[in-house]
Amino acid sequence: MSYARHLNIKIIGFIILLLGILGYTYFQMHNLVIGPVITIKTPQNGATLFASLTEVVGTTKNISEITINDRRIFIDETGVFKEKLLLSPGYNIITLHAKDKFGRTTNRTLELVYN
Predict the structure, then answer these.
(1) CATH number of the domain residue 61 falls in
(2) What burial letters (b/e) apply to 67-104, b meaning 16+ CB within 10 Å?
């Protein structure tokens, strides 16, 4: 095998290794970079409800604490939360606030109507 071909194989191998390391680093750092995430599954924003008791269900990622209307709630080990709330007649605003261990925050707001 010629010296030039051997050198090309080493360079290609090094580039593949470097791309693998960069890809793995991005994969590991992605959660740190995006900060806290709240996803609300039910109820849908803007929904009209006919029962005063509703359950807010959703998932979280990268959080250290979460509140609903400034009241701390808890999540399970997979990041799922379920919290029952009593709605007032008419228009209701429900605010979810989450913070990660680096102090970054995110908010989600639900606007619900109870008839």
Answers:
(1) 2.60.40.10
(2) ebeeeeeebeeebebebebebeeeebebebbbbbeeee
